[in-house]
Amino acid sequence: MLAEDSRSSFGIWAEEVNSKMSSENLSIQEHPDIAALRDRFDLTGSSTTAQVVDGVTMLAGLYLAVSPWIVGFNTTASPLMMSNLIIGLTVALLALGFASAFGRTHGLAWTVPLMGAWAIVSPWLMNGVDTTGGMIASNVIVGAVIMVCGLGSSGFGTFFNPRR
Predict the structure, then answer these.
(1) Contact 150, 120 (CB under 8 A)
(2) What pLDDT digit, counting tens, does each position of 29-59 carry?
């Protein structure tokens, strides 16, 4: 009889736990593990190193966006001008998102190194573009900076432990 009482009380306790943990009562956004992970990413994103990397990424993106006018792309480089403008503004906006809400935007950090790689190879892959040495050097240098900073931003969420 004692064994049956303990089983029935365990059964009642298990039902209470299951009802409290059911998806009907707890959304995924409110789950304690998700909240802890977001807090960790926000703490990571607010570190000085992350803020510097995000700032350099944003400046590199802005430079890429305006580089056609700084370097003096010729009129036959309009596809490259549009590519630099779009990719540069996208990188700058992503960096702004990383700096302000890393916990919400860290999942997009892997795209920044890809955009940096595109900036490096785009002078050779765009059709109808008559490139100059300055155009190539500008794209390669700023693309490399964006790649390195993007890899850094991607690594913050994985390798950086702010509590150390």
Answers:
(1) no
(2) 666 666 666 666 666 656 677 788 889 999 9
Distances (CA, A) of 146 to 24, 30, 104: 43, 34, 21
Question: What tens digit of pLDDT does each residue of 115-147 get?
Answer: 999 999 999 998 888 888 899 999 999 999 999
Query: What six digits make up the tokens of 29?
Result: 């956004």
pTM for the model stands at 0.70
Q: Decide: 67 and 26 in contact? Cβ < 8 Å.
A: no
Give the Å distances, CA to CA, from 7 to 1, 10, 13, 14, 73. Answer: 10, 5, 10, 10, 79
Single-letter amino acid, residue 149 = C
Distance between CA 130 and CA 78 in Å, rounded? 10
Separation between Cα atoms, residue 139 and residue 141, nearest integer Å: 6
User: Which residue type is seen at 67?
Assistant: S
Q: Which residue has tokens 């056609």? A: 68
